[in-house]
Amino acid sequence: MELRPILSAMRRNKFGAVLIAVQMSVTLAFLVNSLSLIEQRLAHSARPTGVDEADLFVISTEPVDSLHDPAARESDDVAALRSLEGVTDAYATNDYPLAGGGMAMSVQLTPEQKVGSALTAYYFGDEHTLGTLGLKLIAGRNFTADEIATRTESDIGAISSVIVTKALADKVFPGGDALGKSIYMESDTKSVRIVGIVERMQTPFYGVTGVVSTFAENSTIAPYRYIDKYANYMVRAKPGQRDRVINAAEATLRQMDSERIITIKTLSQARTDAYRGDHGLVALLGAVCVALLAITAFGIVGLTSYWVSQRRRQIGIRRALGATRQAILRYFQTENLMIAAAGAAVGVMCAIALNLWMVRSFEVVRMDNSRALIGALIMLGLGQLAVLYPALRAASIPPALATRGG
Amino acid sequence: MFSYYIDLGLRSLRRNAVLTILLVTAIAVGIGASMTTLTVFRAMSGDPIPRKSARLFVPQIDSRGPGAGAEPTDDHLADRLTYIDAMALMKAHAAKRQTAIYASALALRPADPKEKPFRAHVRLIYADFFPMFDVPFLYGHPWSASQDENHEPVIVITRSLNDREFGGLNSVGKLLDLGGKSYTIVGVIDRWEPIPQFYDIGRTPFAGKDDVFMPFTHGIEQQIPIMGSTNCNSDVPVGFDARLNSDCIWGRFWVELPTPEDAAEYRTFLDNYASEQRRVGRYNWPARTQLRDVMTWLKYNHVVPGEVRILILVSFGFLLVCLLNAMGLMLAKLMGRAPDIGVRRALGASRAAIFWQCLVETGVVGLAGGLFGLVLTALGLWAARSLLPSDFIAVTHLDAADVLVALVLGIGSTIVAGLYPTWRASHVQPAWQLKAQ
Known about the structure:
Distance between the termini of chain B: 28 Å
Mean pLDDT of chain A: 90
Number of helices of chain B: 15
Strand order of the largest sheet of chain B: 3-4-9-6-8-7
Structural class of chain A: alpha+beta
Number of domains of chain A: 2
Distance between the termini of chain A: 27 Å
Largest sheet of chain A: 7 strands, mixed
Helix content of chain A: 40-55%
Number of strands of chain A: 14
Order of helices and strands of chain A: HHEHEEEHEEEEHEEEEEHEHHHHHH
Number of strands of chain B: 11
Largest sheet of chain B: 6 strands, mixed, barrel
Oligomer: heterodimer
Radius of gyration of chain B: 31 Å
Radius of gyration of chain A: 32 Å
Shape of chain A: elongated
Shape of chain B: elongated
Number of helices of chain A: 12
Order of helices and strands of chain B: HHEEHEEHEHEHEEEHHEHEHHHHHH
């Protein structure tokens, strides 16, 4: 293919060619950054919590008047929930993954340590916790019934053990020898021993930025039986029976106290709520990306059609002088490829510059530069696709046009 | 002449329908996208209390010191106060008005025994809160300063709770059962939902909702649970009283300072207070203080999520692409009419006349794009409302200003984009065109 005629034709249509190239480079810059954000948010919202989300729900209850014996109420509730048909296990806790808010602690190796070795979410649980949540114990042991201490707002019992996630264990003890080690968490004076390590359990926080995003899988389960007026029970149903169990659980709790306030949330719902913002952003950015590509494609179709109509006579002459339809088609395809290549080259640089600027101003995670190259390929493909229709129209211009003179 | 140009513009719109539709759509889509995000942003970053935002301040004291417990705020200064500091500031009464604030929730037992009890959101405040924040009253009035001092079980309820519990009738003097205790209603506030909810920013600043306002002093006396974030440097205190006496931060604090001089005086007062606390040994570091007004406070708290800024950036990038696109199409459109223009020039039309004619034509395209863009904006807002969490998008709606902005943006940006093609069109050589024909 002879490039010289294309170049000299382009020189006569500088403005149009530059316009398409600039448009493609700006499109590329925003497309690539949007796609990178979409990719990051999808990955963020798809992170596993480590618990059996499909079968779990949390049932929260609160009495209208003050309780004279919240401990008894809680034991009764938990016993009633565990005895329901279709329930695998249940326990009372302060918090759960995807809840949004909760307790966080700083982990210290010595009482004197000023800056903690790691931050961790702080869950209360007992010997039923691992089974209820479906956590995978990869080292050590589960809690035993006799090491669970009672904890109320005004009285925190003494504990000597904790179960932590692998992420936390590796952070605090990079040597991989966390099991059996003593650390300081809630108390600066009384240490607790790591008796078990679970593979994964997310914190209740799910933000994509900020402090909470720096310890997403650092969780600790402290062996507390948490007694409070406001009670949260985690219940795991047998596979496929969750919705039926939810109704039964609510009816049972209501039977024990008809006036209590009960709220129920499945972990699936908690996930939907937690990531609604991320998914909304993904949908909106996705729509903008599609629109960007469409607009750019139509722009190319429009301008190329204009060029074709401007050059009808010249095309006719070329055909009359023996150029094949393929040659005409290839002419416009090559022309577009050259413009698109220039646009993509500038666009890749714009995309990276835009990303660097976004990282600095919007707490956006740095994108993988290979994404810009993929974007460049998309732009080249888009150009070829868009130019096809006007190019085919050009190729179908009859040679007779030249002889007719207009 | 202008109306003739408009007529010509409309005619030419019809003549090359495909190109016109492409052009108008390109402009409309760009305007739709950028107006949607701009409207969302405007709603989220608006001034929640325009008449007083420069006179209301949050005092901050570095009660946590440098090091381990450093705050996640931009300047690592605690964004809440300890109970000790909040009470000291209340007692000092150095501002015209002041209030400490905390959030809680209590079970509300409806008077009608057939209704199920539910959880009511309670905001614990001082009486100054109401005049400070210009809270409008539907019935009754705020409680008095002496009722604050006496920790009285009085409440002010919101209009929506009043509608729900009392059918919208005047409920002043009636009793409400909260957490198993009886409270006397002294006032009902009218609809008052500042957006964002600036006075006690929580996790969802655009969905913060109160049902009941209650004296702070009563809440402390009755140990009504403290909800919302609490940060402690050392061991977590056990029990309510221990929490009050601890170095944990959990309370919000606002002051009203009518003039800049008052604000300057209050800054000095805060500095003196912090130095005094250091002298008596509460802090062993130079305790910084800060005083931020409403808008500064919202910015400091990053109330507008980063996502919205990203969307704005992307949508304006999109508008840019749409305009570049429109520029190209406009060039094609105007140059396609070069023969016409040649004839007109030959018949005596001046370059300026052609220029103006083409400019009016681009304006017409821009107007059409702007109008269509408005429709797309309405659609975009609807999509945003259904896709994003409710606390993310406040009450966003299109108003007259938005319509105007969209049209001006449409016409203005199209004309700018059309300037070069218009200039090219007005420089068409009549002789060449006539010869070519």
